[in-house]
Amino acid sequence: QSVLTQPPSVSGTPGQRVTMSCSGSDSNIGRNSVTWYQHLPGAAPKLLIYIDNQRPSGVPDRFSGSKSGTSASLAISGLQSEDEADYYCTSWDDRLEILVLGTGTKVTVL
Amino acid sequence: QVLLQESGPGLVKPSQTLSLICTVSGDSISSGSHDWTWIRQPAGKGLEWLGHIYARGTSVTSTHNYSLGRRITMSADTSKNQFSLTLASVAATDTAVYYCVRAQRGNYYYYHYMDVWGRGTTVTV
User: Fold this and answer.
1) Angstroms from B120 CA to nearest CA on chain A
2) Do B112 and A98 touch (CB under 8 A)?
3) How many other β-carbons are positioned within 10 Å of the β-carbon of residue B45?
4) Which end of chain B has fewer CB atoms surrounding its CB within 10 Å, N or C?
5) Whole-number Cα distances in Å, A20 to A11, A41, A102, B49
6) Cα dihedral angle (A109, A58, A40, A7), rounded to 10 degrees?
7) For B58-72, what is each residue's pLDDT tens digit?
């Protein structure tokens, strides 16, 4: 089950900046940090952003994360064709005591 | 380099039990430093967190997604550096790609992120 709400899709042209949201509640995003994953077709998901806005080594700085209250956002600047993927947000839910995941957002590069 | 590899049958009959093993290399599952996690993705659907085991020495605890009720069991064989998933009474809705994953978390799960993923194994019911 998905407790975090994401838009089903976003699209943009190469070079454009796109953003996607992740909406949660007081028991998850409101209390704990948000993580973002990139899931390319045929591959395992990849860690993209952790602790709201931290990038692991090797992730381009075109990717950035932010959080405010019970919502978070992922931005991709300078969109590239290889960014076409599904993106998922996650956060620990203190009330359910499980990791909750977003519904996923498909990014399409036009 | 830390590697995780899922293994198990690719086809399971309805009402039977699905069993998967994850073999870890390059890290010790009993170090107490990580949660060892199972994630699945049904075709055309999103990711679902199934649960994790935490092992420190010979002590192993598990946390499961309540949505799977009593069907799910997770365990670890620290001597083999493996952890496993068992899902009983499977149905077609359990058909998915199953991933084993290493997760890092802070105190009280203030932060949680999954940094090393297996390649995934497809299980069809």
Assistant:
1) 7
2) no
3) 13
4) N
5) 10, 19, 11, 21
6) -60
7) 899 999 998 898 999
